[in-house]
Amino acid sequence: MSVEITNESGHRLDESEFAALARHVLDAMHVHPQAELEIRFADTEVMSELHVRWMDEDGPTDVLSFPMDELRPGVEGEPSAEGMLGSIVVCPDVAQEQARTAGHSAEEEMLLLATHGILHLLGFDHVEPEEEKEMFGLQRQLLLTFLAGR
């Protein structure tokens, strides 16, 4: 599994922690071991530009997902197809604000956002209430099992 981490945010991050999280999530979702993923950390200016360009919304957002080969989760013994899963972009500045509101660390918030972004790459969404329940439940389970194994 190839996980590329790019930090252009100006924040100090434990890149190996995010690579380990990505591998945990992709393994749990039975994604092909040769799949590729990029996690990029960007400042508020870059994130604002991406948010306007791709979502037509002003200001920075916390995380954006850019799927490539539209890979979907596999099942036990039958991993997904091989390919480029895509890229997620996380904004540490927005994550810090959300972390303060939620009462946990900025790193935990960014791990949550990375998990959320990866699930979007795998085709999960939260537009409908049932979808939200499924995605957020899975997101919580994946993050908790990752944190418990640290």
Q: How are the SSEs placed, and which strands pair?
A:
Blueprint: E1 2-8, H1 15-28, E2 36-42, H2 44-55, E3 63-67, E4 84-90, H3 92-102, H4 106-121, H5 129-148
Parallel strand pairs: 1-2, 2-4
Antiparallel strand pairs: 3-4
Task: Summarize the model shown.
One of its GO terms (cellular component) is cytoplasm. Single strand-specific metallo-endoribonuclease involved in late-stage 70S ribosome quality control and in maturation of the 3' terminus of the 16S rRNA. The chain is of the alpha/beta class and 150 residues long.
Q: What do these coordinates show?
A:
This is Endoribonuclease YbeY. It is found in: Cytoplasm. Its EC number is 3.1.-.-. Its main location: cytoplasm. The protein has 150 residues and is α/β, with parallel strands linked by helices. The protein has 5 helices and 4 strands; from the N terminus they run E-H-E-H-E-E-H-H-H. The protein has a 4-stranded mixed β-sheet. Strand 1, helix 1 and strand 2 form a beta-alpha-beta unit. It is globular and about 40 Å long. It starts with a strand and ends with a helix.
Strand order of the largest sheet: 1-2-4-3
β-strand number: 4
Span of the ends, CA to CA: 19 Å
Number of helices: 5
**Largest sheet entry:** 4 strands, mixed
Low-confidence residue ranges:
none
Number of domains: 1
Task: Quickly give the CATH architecture.
Answer: 3-Layer(aba) Sandwich
Mean pLDDT: 96
Cofactor: Zn(2+)
Binding site for Zn(2+): 116, 120, 126
Family: Belongs to the endoribonuclease YbeY family.
Function: Single strand-specific metallo-endoribonuclease involved in late-stage 70S ribosome quality control and in maturation of the 3' terminus of the 16S rRNA.
